[in-house]
Design brief:
By secondary structure, the protein is an alpha+beta fold. The chain is built from five helices and seven strands.
Length: about 170
């Protein structure tokens, strides 16, 4: 039996970022464009940046001691909403692992509980059926692009949201 865990990024994860950064699917789904060549210095800079960002929560997905992916939230906190954009990326070695759904669900649950978010939005390329299955199994529902608040809409992208199950709508009357 194996397990996947979510943990903070560590400087020692830089070698894994470089290793998996060579995989085309990993690079394609990475939340930012990786420099080419992607060096140890670049990986360490990225990890340091993730540790310091106030408006993001970035965590490594750990499999047997190796950072094989990551999950992150990019916060959009306004007077009207407390929301975040959910992003994940995985090495090919764990694609299809049933534990990935559990990791996503746990990360989302903890995000709602500890960060008091109203909703989390996510997106993927419409051709990516595997991500569609992951998002739906984690509790996301497809939404129209105009509901994301995103002004840079792309017709090749499928958008999702998941609302905080403890959210109460207050009537202004």
């Amino acid at each position: 039996m194996h397990s996947l865990t979510i943990r903070p990024w560590e400087d020692g994860d830089a070698q894994m970022l470089i290793k998996y950064g060579r995989e085309s699917d990993y690079r394609k789904n990475f939340p930012i464009k990786l420099s080419s060549p992607f060096t140890l210095d670049h990986a360490l800079e990225l990890i340091t940046d993730w540790k310091l960002k106030d408006n993001k929560m970035n965590r490594a997905i750990d499999f047997l001691g190796d950072a094989v992916g990551g999950v992150s939230l990019n916060f959009n906190l306004t007077d009207q909403y407390r929301e975040a954009k959910f992003t994940y990326w995985l090495a090919a070695t764990i694609w299809g692992d049933p534990l990935v759904k559990q990791v996503m669900k746990l990360f989302i649950k903890l995000s709602f509980e500890h960060l008091k978010l109203d909703r989390i939005i996510a997106q993927h390329d419409k051709k990516d059926r595997r991500s569609q299955k992951y998002f739906i199994s984690a509790g996301f529902r497809p939404i129209k692009p105009d509901l994301t608040g995103n002004l840079n809409l792309d017709s090749s992208i499928q958008y999702y949201e998941i609302l905080n199950p403890n959210l109460t709508i207050k009537n202004k009357d």
